[in-house]
Amino acid sequence: MEDNAEKTRCMIIGSGPAGYTAAIYAARADLKPVMYQGLQPGGQLTTTSEIDNFPGYPSGTTGTEMMEDLKKQAERFGTDVRWGLVTEVNFEERPFKIKTDDGKVILAETVIIATGATARWLGLESERRYQGFGVSACATCDGFFFRGLNVAIVGGGDTAAEEATYLAKLCKKVYMVHRRGELRASKAMQHKVMNTANIEMVWNSKPVEVVGDNKVVTGLMVEDVTTGQSRRLDVDGVFVAIGHTPNTEVFKGQLNLDEAAYIVTIPGTTKTSIDGVFAAGDVQDHHYRQAVTAAGTGCMAAIEAERFLSSN
Ligand code: NDP
């Protein structure tokens, strides 16, 4: 595996706000980082439309623009940003061995994992068609665009419950569509949902079609799974909150993952179960999931990698 190996002091896997921020800090610390961008260069933010909650953009920006800016900033200090995927890692000994889909083997003294998480979708064709035009997987990011309007949120877990109460403060009415007759969310979150006057529960129902006028969403068709009857909800937005899948497949067996397959880090740090391997952003965070918190942990990971190299 080492025959054609290339060496780096710091390898960054993933190119969302966590990866790019790690790259900016690592490059400025002279670690000459090599970044593999992954399947979705720029990460999840490139699938949203506008971003109004990232500090420093008083008029807002788009996910694509922000990621282009972050890339330029990382490259300005010497990050080697590459298009490609990591297909195999071996963290058993240092330098760590990383295989990429272009056939390279990279020997890395430190690794920063910032591969993110992927929102789960319902899988409807109409859902994909209206993504960014009324269909969203992030209420904190997009809820603001639906002020005073009616929206639906799909899911029955803590995220759906939290996002439903968040949306209820902005929107006229929130339909919470859940496939069963009881919520999975914690009791505290359930109480919050039940005590919010403008949230209406739509129990035992699954979405069957996002309705639109070919430009934006105008409704959601749901089917009662107990009776088979369909109903149209007149909404301008549909939020899907049915969970996320962390992008950790390639790290299984190499690092400690929690029961939902997120990378476990030592609280207050980005250190993983392997010295010299750090994790930043949504791949280790199923709680906040914000670009700004991902960027913050990306910065932490680069500082920790630099300190690790200095002391080893
Ligand atoms: P969960 O996996 O907990 O919940 C997903 C929800 O989506 C479930 O209600 C599930 O239904 C529903 N669902 C899944 N697939 C489908 C589908 N195809 N169609 C319709 N509905 C579907 O994910 P969350 O993102 O809510 O939470 C992830 C973790 O993060 C949990 O451990 C949660 O407790 C935690 N969390 C904690 C928070 C807090 O403490 N404040 C805030 C947010 C998350 P069903 O119930 O029938 O399986």
Describe this structure in words.
The chain is of the alpha/beta class. The chain has helices spanning 17-28, 63-76, 125-129, 139-142, 158-170, 187-194, 291-311; strands at 6-13, 34-36, 50-51, 61-62, 80-82, 86-90, 96-100, 105-113, 117-119, 135-136, 150-154, 173-177, 199-202, 205-212, 217-224, 230-233, 237-240, 244-246, 277-279. The chain starts with 5 loop residues before the first strand and ends with a helix. The chain binds NADPH dihydro-nicotinamide-adenine-dinucleotide phosphate (NDP). NADPH dihydro-nicotinamide-adenine-dinucleotide phosphate binds next to helix 5.
Which keywords apply here?
FAD/NAD(P)-binding domain, 19 strands, 312 residues, 2 domains, 7 helices, 7-stranded mixed β-sheet, alpha/beta, binds NADPH dihydro-nicotinamide-adenine-dinucleotide phosphate
Shape, principal axes of CA atoms: elongated
Share in β-strands: 25-35%
- DSSP helical segment count: 7
| CATH class descriptor of the largest domain | Alpha Beta
The CATH architecture category of the largest domain equals 3-Layer(bba) Sandwich
Number of strands: 19
Class derived from helix and strand content: alpha/beta
Distance between termini?
Answer: 25 Å
Bound ions, cofactors and other small molecules, one mention each: NADPH dihydro-nicotinamide-adenine-dinucleotide phosphate
pLDDT < 50 runs, ≥5 residues: none
CATH fold field value of the largest domain: FAD/NAD(P)-binding domain
Instruction: Look at the structure and give the mean pLDDT.
Output: 95
User: What is the domain tally?
Assistant: 2
Rg from alpha-carbon coordinates: 21 Å
| CATH H-level homologous superfamily name of the largest domain | FAD/NAD(P)-binding domain
Largest sheet: 7 strands, mixed
